[in-house]
Amino acid sequence: MARPKAPELTERELEIMQVFWDLDGGTTARDVRERLELRGRDLAYTTVATLIRILTEKRFLRQTNQDRPFLFEAVRSFDEVSVNLVDDLVKRVFRGSKEKLLISLFGQQEQLSDGDRELLEDFLREQNQ
Q1: For a Cys-Cys bond, which of 31, 55, 82, 95 suits 60, CB 3.0-4.6 Å?
Q2: Of residues 32 and 105, which shows the higher confidence score?
Q3: Contact 58/1 with Cβ under 8 angstroms?
Q4: Three-state DSSP class for residue 111
Q5: CATH number, domain at 43?
Q6: Is the pTM of this model over 0.90?
Q7: Based on the domain organization, do 98 and 66 belong to the same domain?
Q8: Torsion of CA 76, 79, 80, 82, to 10 degrees
Q9: What are the two backbone dihedrals, phi and then psi, of residue 72, each rounded to the nearest 5 degrees?
């Protein structure tokens, strides 16, 4: 019996989506495979094509033409998907606590760079206005 498809992205599906977000416009499975190979990820063409089909079924991608080679484009943006993934992480791992997430990110890591600290402070100031 086949495992049901997860509604969110698996690690491999996220790799494929990263390519679509980087390449604006219609992209073929072959283009995606080549781009992944340049990144050091050598997947078989059939694997890439299967992942694209799954992402299309999950409505992360859509096919934009009817002739071969088929072209696909992202339906959901990086911002939309990343917000959903972070929200899911906060709910599942940190029991809904953004504070616990922030402590995990900044409390036990190496010191923030001056630029990162300034960016974070600016963001927090904007949120409080």
Answers
A1: 55
A2: 32
A3: no
A4: coil
A5: 1.10.10.10
A6: no
A7: no
A8: 110
A9: -130, 155
The DSSP-derived string for 41-88 is ----HHHHHHHHHHHHHTTSEEE--SSSSP-EEESS-HHHHHHHHHHH
Contact 29/45 with Cβ under 8 angstroms? yes
Q: Which amino acid is at 96?
A: G
Cα-based distances in Å from 120 to 22, 38, 63, 112: 25, 33, 39, 10
Write out pLDDT tens, residues 86-123: 999 999 999 999 989 988 887 766 677 888 888 888 88
Return d(Cα 65, Cα 88) in angstroms, integer: 33
Dig out the tokens for 37 from the structure: 């190979």
Contact between 89 and 101 (Cβ < 8 Å) = yes
Hunting for tokens 């709910």 — which residue is that?
A: 91
How many folded domains does the chain comprise? Answer: 2
Taken as a whole, the chain contains a residue count of 129
